[in-house]
């Protein structure tokens, strides 16, 4: 009997693992389990809706899903429908690829006020993730604040600044596009606690801030390095290119377009203010020590606003008694191995960083571990899981089912959008009849 592997999570970490497994062990069988009826994890629910080209990787994952050795089992939640112990009893290897879906907390007073959101929930809301459909952020505000200087912060600020026409041409959730269309936003502040040279965003994403129909991007020239400062050019993280774009924005005038995006540096949040609901954020100016650490200066200022989106990174979540490293906020693992027969890939292994392709080597590593298990492989895998899920009356969504959901989403599209996403699991299942 060939090796059987269950992968929990169908995002990049899960699909790169499946692809590597069938390449290295052609007679293995791989079941990819996801709690949603839709595959591809962050590709669907994290990547910005106006970045459709980044989603093209789903076509490659689709070929893996349709390989004869691979099955997708959507709408199956671990441990609600099947526990890790049960999966380990059924499969020779189990791979956790559950990502990093939990928002990090700011750790400041007022962050639980209505109107303060973490990036996972806010991005999940505009990307039609069923968990966040009800978020309904109040965008009837003139000013929004985004905390953080990573690419997610730029995604959020850029999308908030777009016109209804711009966002309707994407696969943003229709309710979010409607809300952005009528939002009277005039000022969007993006706050980085360090300087432009330390920003986590990348130049392709900063460049887009000069290409918005409705918004002009502003930068205080005083925070930019002088022409004499040597700038690194390390490809994606190029300081040279980042600073080039920021210098352009520093020349902009604030009255050129109706919306202004203020990219601000050296400021960190110290309190969110408001009675029940956010009405302002208190920021404190920072400076950097010689070794690049952030130091508060004691100088504070307040920005009146009704919405704060904290884009300060995310973390993975513990799952069903698997050893979890609280300090590093990911599963305890040594190079992707939790213990014999139990492995981890993607952000659940490494934390949330890099591009989609950064997860590729994790798959190869999983396949290396799996190869060593082949001589002793004996577990029944798919047939056993099918029986267990049937006994529990779980409505499994197959990859063919997903293709039908996808076809219904594509058929419902308008305004040049690639699809109109279903926003609830019942609607997804309902489209299957
Ligand atoms: P990130 O790149 O780690 O950025 C997090 C930002 O939050 C940093 O600017 C960080 O500042 C700041 N921050 C952290 N804690 C803070 C605090 N307590 N107060 C204020 N600021 C704080 O995370 P991300 O933006 O969530 O992105 C995750 C990964 O996905 C990244 O690798 C990113 O490049 C990738 N991604 C890529 C794309 C794309 O390719 N288009 C799009 C989205 C995401 P410090 O630097 O000072 O710590």
Radius of gyration: 23 Å
Helix content: 25-40%
Gross geometry: globular
Q: Which structural class matches the secondary elements?
A: alpha/beta
Count of the separate structural domains: 2
Give the end-to-end Cα distance, rounded to a whole number of Å: 36 Å
For this structure, what is the CATH class of the largest domain? Alpha Beta
CATH H-level homologous superfamily name of the largest domain:
NAD(P)-binding Rossmann-like Domain
Bound molecules: NADP nicotinamide-adenine-dinucleotide phosphate
Mean pLDDT: 96
Low-pLDDT stretches are: none
Strand order of the largest sheet: 3-2-1-4-19-18
At CATH's second level, what is the architecture of the largest domain?
Answer: 3-Layer(aba) Sandwich
| Tally of helical segments | 15
Say what the CATH topology of the largest domain is: Rossmann fold
Give an overview of the whole structure.
The protein has helices spanning 12-24, 42-45, 57-65, 84-90, 119-126, 151-161, 164-168, 174-182, 203-207, 239-250, 347-350, 360-373, 382-391, 399-411, 425-430; strands at residues 4-8, 29-33, 70-73, 93-96, 102-103, 116-118, 143-147, 187-191, 215-219, 259-264, 267-273, 280-288, 294-304, 307-310, 314-315, 324-325, 330-331, 337-339, 342-344. The protein has 433 residues and is of the alpha/beta class. It has 2 domains: 4-101 and 316-430, 3-Layer(aba) Sandwich (Rossmann fold), CATH 3.40.50.720; 103-314, FAD/NAD(P)-binding domain, CATH 3.50.50.60. The strands form 5 sheets. It has a 6-stranded mixed beta sheet, sandwiched between helices. A 6-stranded parallel beta sheet has the order 6-14-7-8-10-9. It is globular and about 70 Å long. Bound molecules: NADP nicotinamide-adenine-dinucleotide phosphate.
């Amino acid at each position: 009997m060939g090796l059987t592997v269950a992968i929990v999570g169908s995002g990049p970490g899960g699909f790169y693992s499946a692809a590597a497994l069938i390449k290295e062990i052609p007679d293995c069988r791989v079941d990819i389990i996801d709690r949603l009826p839709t595959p591809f994890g962050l590709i669907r629910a994290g990547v910005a809706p106006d970045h459709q080209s980044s989603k093209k990787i789903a076509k490659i994952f689709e070929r893996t899903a349709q390989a004869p050795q691979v099955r997708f089992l959507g709408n199956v939640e671990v441990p609600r429908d099947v526990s890790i112990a049960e999966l380990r009893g059924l499969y020779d290897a189990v791979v956790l690829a559950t990502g990093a879906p939990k928002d990090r907390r700011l750790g400041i007073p007022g962050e639980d006020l209505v109107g303060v959101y973490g990036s996972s929930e806010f991005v999940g809301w505009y990307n039609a993730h069923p968990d966040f459909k009800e978020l309904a952020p109040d965008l009837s505000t003139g000013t929004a604040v985004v905390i953080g200087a990573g690419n997610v912060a730029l995604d959020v600020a850029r999308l908030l600044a777009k016109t209804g026409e711009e966002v309707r041409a994407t696969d943003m959730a229709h309710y979010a596009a409607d809300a952005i269309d009528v939002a009277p936003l005039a000022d969007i502040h993006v706050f980085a606690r360090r300087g432009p040279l330390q920003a986590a965003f990348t130049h392709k994403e900063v460049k887009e801030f000069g290409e918005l129909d409705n918004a002009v991007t502003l930068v205080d020239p005083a925070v930019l390095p002088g022409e004499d400062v040597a700038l690194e050019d390390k490809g994606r993280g190029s300081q040279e290119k980042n600073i080039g774009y920021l210098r352009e924005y520093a020349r902009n005038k604030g009255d050129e377009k109706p919306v202004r995006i203020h990219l601000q540096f050296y400021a960190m949040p110290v309190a969110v203010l408001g009675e029940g609901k956010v009405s302002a954020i208190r920021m404190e100016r920072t400076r950097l020590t010689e070794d690049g650490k952030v130091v508060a200066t004691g100088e504070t200022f307040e920005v009146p606003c009704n919405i704060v989106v904290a884009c300060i990174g995310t973390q993975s979540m513990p799952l069903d008694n698997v050893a979890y490293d609280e300090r590093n906020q990911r599963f305890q693992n040594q190079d992707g191995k939790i213990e014999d027969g139990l492995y981890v890939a993607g952000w659940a292994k490494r934390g949330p960083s890099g591009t989609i392709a950064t997860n590729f080597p994790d798959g190869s590593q999983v396949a290396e571990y799996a190869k060593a298990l082949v001589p002793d492989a004996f577990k029944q895998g798919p047939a056993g899981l099918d029986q267990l899920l049937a006994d529990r009356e779980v409505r499994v969504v197959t990859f063919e089912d997903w293709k039908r959901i996808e076809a219904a989403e594509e058929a419902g599209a308008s305004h040049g959008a690639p699809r109109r996403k279903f926003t609830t699991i019942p609607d997804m299942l309902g489209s299957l009849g």
